[in-house]
C-alpha cells in the first residue's frame, strides 16, 4: 500500500508577503511556526511590525521547513524555485498563482530533480486592494482553494496540504492544472476581459454616456479597475484557454449583433444567459457528504471527480478525504 | 418672445403602476393631485390599499390632468397614446421608457395632431425587483433623469416637466432621443448583453467552472438575472445603436483574442479599459454651476450642450435653468 497518509505541517515558509502571501502568513501564524520573506525590505519590516517572523533571504526562510508556499509573481518563479530546490530538502512546495499550467512546468523542471514534491494551489479569494497592508488573516475563510492533482503528484503531499487548508476553513477543490486553467479562463479571465471592453466602449460614448452610466455599468466594469499586473496574470498568463473561450463569446455576440441588424431578437441569448445565471446562483444550495478513500484503487480519479462535479474536500484524516458533493444543477 | 416659462404641475395621471410608475406615483402623491391607472385590477387594488387614488380606465385617469406619465411597456404605447390623445386635452405627456426614439415616433404620430405636447423621459433608476410591490417613493432621489429635447419639443413643456423632476431631487439631463439611445446602448444595453454572454460561457464550463466562480463572475453576470422583458426593451428595443456598439466590442475582443493567440499581450485593452473605468469613477468629483437662459437665442442648444458635457439641470425658475457642469475628465 502506498504511503498516502497526510502529515501534519509543523513549519511553513511563505515567500512573497503581498495580499495573498501576507494573509496566509497571518492566518498560519495562529497555529504553526511560520516565517515569511519578501524581496522588498519595507514589506519585510511591515510584516515584522505586524508580529510575523521574517527571514532575510529565500534560502534562510525555507531551510528545514515542512512546507514552502510560493506567493511571488509568476516572472519570479524560475529564480525563486532554483533557490528553494537547493535549500529546502524534503519540503513540500505549493503556490497560489491564478494560473496553474505554467507553474506546474516550472516546478517540474526545478523541484523534481532535487526530490522536492510540488502541489499547485489557487485560492479563489482576493480584494480590490493589494500588498501586505491589505492582508487579512480572515481572507480565506470559506473560500474555494483549488489544489492541483496530476498523474505525477505525490498523493501524500497533496493530502498534507489539503489537510492544512481544510483546517483553515477552506473548501479544497481537486482539479488538474489544465482543467483549472480552462475553468478560470471562463469565470475569472473572461470577466476581466469583458469588463475592460465594456469600460472602453462606455468611455467612447463621451461625457453623456458616462453621466448616464448606473448600476449595470458599475458592476460590469468593476474589475476593469484591478491592478494591471493581476489582469496580465489572469489573461496573458492563461492565453490559450482564454483565447478559446473568447472565441465562444465572439460567436455569441456576433449572433446577437446579426439578430439586431436583421430585425430579429437576442431572445436566445437572453434565455441561455438568464438560465445560466440562475443555475450559478442556485448552485451550492443542496448536496450531500461523501468520503474518498485515497488509498483505494481509483482514489485519485475519485478525488478529481469530486472537483469536476463542483464539489470539494472538507477534511482529511487517515488517508481519507471527507467531501461535499453538490446536488445536480436544476434545469 | 416665445412662451418658455415653466408652469407648476398641479395634477398628474400615472399610467402603469409597476416599479417605475408606482414609485413615481408614490413620490408625487406627497405634493400633487395624483391618480394612477394600471391594466391589472390587482395592481390597481394594491395601489389603492397603499393610499393612492386610482381610476378604472385610461380615459378616466387622464381627463383634466396637467401632466400624463406613460409608464407602460413599449408594445402598449400605440393603444394607450390613442386614448390619451382623445381624453387629455391640453395635457403635457411624458414617459419613462428606457429607449427614446421609438416612443418619440409614436408620440409624434398620436399626440401632435391632437395638440398634446410630448416630452420623452428616462429615469436612470431601477431595482432587481419589479412590480408595484417593489415600488418605493425614494427610488428617484438623486437619480439622473434624461428629458428629451428635440427640434419640435415645446420648450415650455420641457421646462415644466424639468421643474417638477428637479423638485423631486432628480438630476435632469437634456439630450436628443437619438443621442440618448446611443449612450444607453453603451452603458445599459451593452452591460446586459455582455453579462448574458459571460453567464453562458461560465455555465458552459460545467460544475467545476461554476464552483470556482467568485466576485468577478458574480458582478459581471449580475444583470443577466434581470427580467427578460426589461432586457428585451433595452436590447431589441434599441437595436441599431446596440448593434453599432457591439461591433466596437467585437473588434476589441477580436484584437485581444488575436494577441493572446500570437503570444502577444492584451496590455493595450488593459490600459484603455483601466483608464476608462477610472475616468468614470472620477467623474462627478468636480464641477461648477451655470445658468441657461432658455428664452435667449440658442437656449435650446445651450441646454443640449449641458447634457453632452455630462452636466444636468438642478432647478428651473422664470424660464431659466440652473445647471451643474462637470469638470473636464482627467487624462
Radius of gyration of chain A, whole Å: 21 Å
Number of strands of chain A: 12
Largest interface: A-B, 101 and 101 residues
Q: Secondary-structure element sequence of chain A?
A: EHEHEHEHEHEEEHEHHHHHHEHEE
Task: Name the quaternary structure.
Answer: homodimer
Shape of chain A: globular
Distance between the termini of chain A: 43 Å
Mean pLDDT of chain A: 94
**Helices and strands of chain A: which structural class?**
alpha/beta
**Spans of at least 5 consecutive residues with low confidence of chain A:** none
Q: Compute the number of helices of chain A.
A: 13
Strand content of chain A: 15-25%
Task: Give helix % range of chain A.
Answer: 40-55%
Describe the largest sheet of chain A: 6 strands, parallel
**How are strands sequenced across the largest beta sheet of chain A?**
3-2-1-4-5-6
Structural features, described:
- Two copies of one chain form a homodimer.
- Chain A has 331 residues and is α/β, with parallel strands linked by helices.
- Chain A has helices at 19-28, 41-49, 58-62, 77-87, 101-110, 155-167, 177-203, 206-212, 215-221, 228-235, 239-261, 267-282, 299-308; strands at residues 11-15, 33-37, 53-54, 67-70, 92-95, 117-119, 121-123, 144-148, 171-175, 287-293, 312-317, 320-326.
- Helices cover 47% and strands 17% of the residues of chain A.
- The longest helix of chain A is centred in the middle third of the chain and has 27 residues, at 177-203.
- In chain A, the strands form three sheets. Chain A has a six-stranded parallel beta sheet, sandwiched between helices. In chain A, strands 7-8-9 form a three-stranded mixed beta sheet.
- The mean pLDDT of chain A is 94.
- Chains A and B meet through helix 7, helix 8, helix 9, helix 10 and helix 11 of A and helix 7, helix 8, helix 9, helix 10 and helix 11 of B.
